[in-house]
Give the backbone structure.
Amino acid sequence: QYSLAQCFEHGAGVVQDAEEAVKLYTQAAKQGLAEAQLAIGDYYAQGTGALAKNDEEAAQLYRQAAEQGDMHGQNALAKCFERGAGVAQDAEEAVKHYRHAAEQGFAAAQYSLAQCFEHGAGVVQDAEEAVKLYTQAAKQGLAEAQLAIGDYYAQGTGALAKNDEEAAQLYRQAAEQGDMHGQNALAKCFERGAGVAQDAEEAVKHYRHAAEQGFAAAQYSLAQC
């Protein structure tokens, strides 16, 4: 039912039909399939297609998946608690569910939990724990985490000593994924000679990549070039 629902959702081998996809996802979800609970939860959360937006239904479905130990469900439920979407806003509950997903190695949850530790949201502020979690997510290729650790190295404040070379390398990893913030940060490194040899042409190249994605700061820097 779940696999057939995906076919209808994406128009793979059948005419695309969101309503049929929702019907099949719902049948599978009622049988306890976490992936289907997540899929229907996303339909309710987004309010696009065959189901009207309903944050309460979404949160309930995410909870059902989370209670089975599904890391995607745990992460989605954590976001509900963080934002107060379909449940009462509760930073400590958000941290609890982010932690469950992060402990299973889910990079997005590691990043979100790191942010909680960085800003003291639902937990005692702890820069070292934030860095540890950002690093775990960065090693899995999450661009946002690569940027976060890059910023720690670039600033040299908190849990990491200043290291421009490490910062530039992390910004490059994010930039190579097409991340406009990474492209902009790497451009600044080339412009200033921070962690890389100073190179105005390389700076322009990376500013241009970010500017073409509509990043205002890069557009401004490119204009100055």
About this structure: The two ends are 56 Å apart (CA to CA).
